[in-house]
Amino acid sequence: MIRHGPFFLALFILSAPAHAQNEPFRIANGAPLRATALYLVRSGGEGWGRNLLPRGPLAPGAALSMRPPEGAGCRFDVRLTLEDGQDVIRRDADVCATRVVVVGEGARTAAPSSPAPPQVGGGDRLPPPAGEGE
Predict the structure, then answer these.
(1) Alpha-carbon distances of 14 from 7, 17, 18, 95, rounded to whole Å
(2) β-strands 35-42, 75-82: how paired?
(3) Distance of CA 109 to CAs 85, 106, 131, Å?
(4) What is the residue range of the signal peptide feature (predicted)?
(5) Please, is 80 exposed, middle or buried when counting C-beta atoms within 10 Å of its C-beta (0-12, 13-18, 19+)?
(6) Residues with Cβ < 8 Å from 25, sequence gap 6 or more?
């Protein structure tokens, strides 16, 4: 009798990372305000692309389920635009290791008077556009 157990186990282990890249994940709004826009790009990619919230705002605490395109990898930069115009960014989120990516934890409800330094691990806030708030 031929035993195939070890062969199939090895095949499963080798294919697991590739399979994880196409599994659905969730982007959660961790900010205290509604998000009016959501952008997702491969980490280090150029531009932000199109708004992924065409059906309306994402409430605080709500999440949107997404599935990465074939071959997109696991690491993405995520940007939420909040209803007050503030952008909250989470860089290099590993959607294969963390199936729920929370963006906006610790975001303030009012734009800062001066640009805040980048937050390590919690996301980066973009400074307000030049000329605003002066």
Answers:
(1) 11, 7, 8, 19
(2) antiparallel
(3) 10, 9, 20
(4) 1-20
(5) buried
(6) 65, 66, 67, 68, 95, 98, 99, 100, 101
Judge contact between 64 and 95, C-beta under 8 A: no
**Neighbour tally for 126: CB within 10 Å:** 14
Q: Kind of pairing, strands 25-29 and 100-103?
A: parallel
* CATH number, domain 20-108+121-125, options 3.10.450.50, 3.30.70.20, 2.60.40.2890, 3.40.50.2300: 2.60.40.2890
Specify the 3-state DSSP secondary structure of 101. strand
Q: Cα separation of 80 and 90, whole Å?
A: 9
Question: Which pTM value belongs to this model?
Answer: 0.65
pLDDT digits (tens, 9 = 90+) for 25-61: 999 999 999 999 999 999 988 899 999 998 999 999 9
